[in-house]
């Protein structure tokens, strides 16, 4: 089987069946066909695919992706904690957690794999690309499921800071519960009628409009949706209609979990992002 290259594992492609070279060339262009001719495509058993290989429908082949041109994210990502099992990093704004779409090399996962020399590094959870803060990774494949389960069952507690307008008519603190749905292909998530699947504690901690947000679930765009539902959209959030696009300041400030029968709490340092940098980067969303 193909290993990790350039901090990325190979892509797995499910075939419709027939001559592999012709199918890859038709579906993905001549670049994929050239990979076959160069011996860079293998089947699920690790056998190299050649120009004459024919496979049945439902078969899988594996190949390395070509990296797209990306806009560099000009912010550092300091490691806050590292041991044999986990790495905890302070992800900056505008950096995706892991490869997806046109964000591949400029992601937290690929950066850390390269910098730390840990090819099996994997995120135990995700932060939105525009959100900064504490991000936990596991160092070995066999650990990933255990830590993902901690996040899924609510054993990890996270808090965020965000800036928004202050409205005295909105009674705080309060727990916001709603049903959040994000449909494939749409940037925004929305609240819909039905059984709540998202819950956030919202607290105003400064009269200048600084909020502490404590999510008790992990739905996509949950914090921005819940703040918007209160009539308090997060300042500079490009996912909010009529956004000024000046500065997105949602930041994961603290991540706490029980591990090896003891509690671990890791905080991200205070950060400042210039409005000019935010405007420049938000145009690439």
Automatic annotation (TrEMBL):
Pfam families in alphabetical order: PseudoU_synth_2
Transmembrane segments: none
Domain of life where this protein originates: Bacteria
GO molecular function, a single term: pseudouridine synthase activity
InterPro entries documented for this protein: PsdUridine_synth_cat_dom_sf (IPR020103), PsdUridine_synth_RluA-like_CS (IPR006224), PsdUridine_synth_RsuA/RluA (IPR006145), RluA_PseudoU_synthase (IPR050188)
Catalytic reaction list: a uridine in RNA = a pseudouridine in RNA
Biological process, per Gene Ontology: enzyme-directed rRNA pseudouridine synthesis
Domain Pseudouridine synthase RsuA/RluA-like: 85-229
Protein known as: RNA pseudouridylate synthase
Annotated source species: Mycobacterium kansasii
């Amino acid at each position: 089987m193909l290993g990790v290259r350039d901090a990325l594992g190979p892509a797995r492609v499910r075939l419709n069946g027939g001559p592999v070279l012709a199918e890859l060339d038709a579906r993905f262009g001549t670049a994929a066909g050239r990979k076959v001719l160069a011996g860079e495509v293998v089947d699920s058993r690790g056998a190299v695919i050649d120009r004459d290989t024919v496979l049945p429908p439902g078969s899988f082949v594996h190949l390395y992706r070509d990296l797209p041109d990306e806009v560099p994210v000009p912010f550092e990502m300091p490691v806050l904690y590292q041991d044999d099992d986990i790495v905890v990093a302070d992800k900056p704004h505008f950096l995706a957690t892991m490869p997806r779409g046109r964000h591949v090399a400029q992601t937290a996962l690929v950066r850390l794999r390269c910098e730390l020399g840990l090819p099996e590094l994997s995120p135990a959870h995700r932060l939105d690309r525009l959100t900064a803060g504490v991000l936990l990774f596991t160092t070995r494949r066999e650990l990933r499921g255990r830590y993902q389960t901690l996040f899924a069952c609510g054993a990890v507690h996270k808090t965020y800071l965000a800036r928004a307008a202050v409205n005295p008519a909105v009674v705080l603190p309060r727990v916001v519960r709603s049903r959040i749905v994000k449909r494939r292909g749409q940037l925004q998530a929305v609240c819909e009628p039905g059984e709540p699947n998202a819950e956030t504690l919202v607290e105003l901690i400064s009269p200048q409009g600084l909020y502490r947000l404590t999510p008790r679930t992990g739905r996509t765009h949950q914090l921005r949706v819940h703040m918007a539902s209160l009539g308090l959209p997060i300042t500079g959030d490009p996912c909010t209609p009529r956004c000024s696009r000046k500065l997105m300041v949602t930041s994961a400030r603290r991540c706490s979990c029980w591990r090896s029968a003891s509690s671990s709490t890791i905080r991200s340092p205070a950060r400042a992002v210039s409005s000019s940098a935010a405007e420049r980067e938000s145009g690439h969303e």
